[in-house]
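Severity: low
Component: inverse-folding endpoint
Summary: output formatting inconsistent between runs
Steps to reproduce: submit the following structure tokens with default settings.
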């Protein structure tokens, strides 16, 4: 009986593992996959800041990280509405205002892949913010007739903001969608998509995977999940050789109902295309937990939508301390946290970073100094 059971298990596993065979190759979820190696970072090793300095900064590298979800900026009207209540299309001036608010709140833009580490590299006192754009919509990157970048598209707004604020780097993550029925080509100007993708990569933006067709993934079989991921990657890599795509965002926020199929979103192979994603972005859910947090789940990374007032509300809650925000100590080699959070750290996530725990000192009572002769004068 045991032998029969084993045979059943082996057969079932074999069937699952070759479920992509009719798509030319087997999927190997969870397999170790080769990726182009990042160039080594050469910089001096920094010593941790003193507890007094960490407390003064309110350093908290286990606090929440805002990952913002944008779709269209100044996009076309939909069902007679210029802008919508879910933030899928917002006005250029709304985006500009939000950037000003983020800057004022000491947020600092990084790409999505940059926060998937305990070595987050942002200046001391800053909070990393990830600005994500889904669907490769036309209003995210649009050329005018004279081939200059439209100042009212998302990229034009980001570049203008960067020119004005040089300490606000050009960073954002574009979740590309190659073949959706309502998406004639990424960024909606057929013939320019290769130029645009290369430009984004050369400027330091991240290009990432939003599947190939935007079909909801809830009930797709493994073979189609594999194709959706691999084909998107093939499309981009053919146009931007050497680009690394290693994060994905769920179309419509819809994950496979069968939890056992989620690994197919992370790792797989189709023919010569090998993909490896380090996290799955959801559509909503609020500020994300940090990588070093025990409860950080790479399969369910939450984002903040761009609906009217939503980003502003998160900004206010984090600035006022109602939501603990990630505050950097400025040292990518350390994870600095107040002692109260020590139990929440996942030690396996540190990857060589040094954990620095400090006590928040209560401010000493100010002594009232009275000059000796002041009493005499009264
Ligand atoms: Zn989408």
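Observed output (run 2 of 3):
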């Amino acid at each position: 009986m045991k032998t029969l059971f084993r045979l059943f298990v082996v057969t079932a596993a074999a069937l699952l593992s070759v479920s992509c065979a009719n798509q030319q190759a087997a999927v190997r979820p969870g397999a170790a996959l080769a990726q182009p190696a990042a160039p080594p970072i050469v910089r001096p090793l920094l010593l941790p800041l003193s507890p007094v300095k960490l407390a003064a900064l309110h350093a908290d590298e286990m606090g929440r990280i805002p990952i913002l979800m944008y779709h269209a900026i100044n996009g076309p009207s939909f069902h007679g509405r210029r802008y919508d209540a879910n933030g899928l299309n917002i006005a250029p001036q709304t985006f500009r205002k939000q950037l000003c608010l983020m800057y004022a709140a000491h947020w600092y833009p990084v790409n999505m892949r940059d926060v998937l580490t305990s070595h987050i590299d942002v200046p001391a006192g800053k909070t990393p913010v990830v600005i994500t754009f889904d669907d490769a919509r036309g209003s995210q990157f649009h050329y005018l007739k004279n081939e200059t970048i439209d100042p009212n598209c998302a990229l034009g707004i980001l570049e203008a903001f960067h020119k004005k604020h040089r300490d606000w780097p050009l960073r954002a993550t574009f979740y590309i969608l190659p073949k959706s029925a309502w998406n004639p080509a990424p960024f909606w100007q057929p013939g320019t998509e290769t130029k645009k993708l290369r430009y984004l990569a050369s400027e330091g933006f991240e290009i990432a995977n939003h599947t190939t067709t935007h079909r909801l993934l809830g009930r797709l079989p493994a073979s189609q999940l594999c194709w959706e991921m691999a084909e998107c990657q093939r499309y981009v890599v053919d146009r931007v050789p050497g680009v690394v795509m290693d994060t994905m965002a769920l179309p419509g926020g819809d994950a496979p109902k069968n939890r056992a199929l989620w690994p197919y979103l992370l790792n797989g192979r189709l023919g010569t295309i090998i993909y490896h994603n380090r996290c799955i972005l959801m559509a909503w859910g609020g500020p994300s937990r940090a990588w070093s947090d025990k409860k950080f789940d790479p399969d369910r990374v939450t984002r903040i939508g761009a609906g009217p007032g939503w980003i502003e509300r998160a900004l206010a809650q984090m600035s006022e301390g109602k939501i603990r925000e990630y505050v950097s100590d400025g040292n990518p080699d350390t994870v600095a946290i107040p002692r109260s959070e020590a139990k929440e750290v996942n030690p396996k996530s540190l990857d060589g970073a040094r954990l620095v725990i400090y006590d928040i000192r209560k401010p000493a009572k100010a002594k009232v100094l009275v000059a000796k002769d002041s009493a005499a004068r009264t």
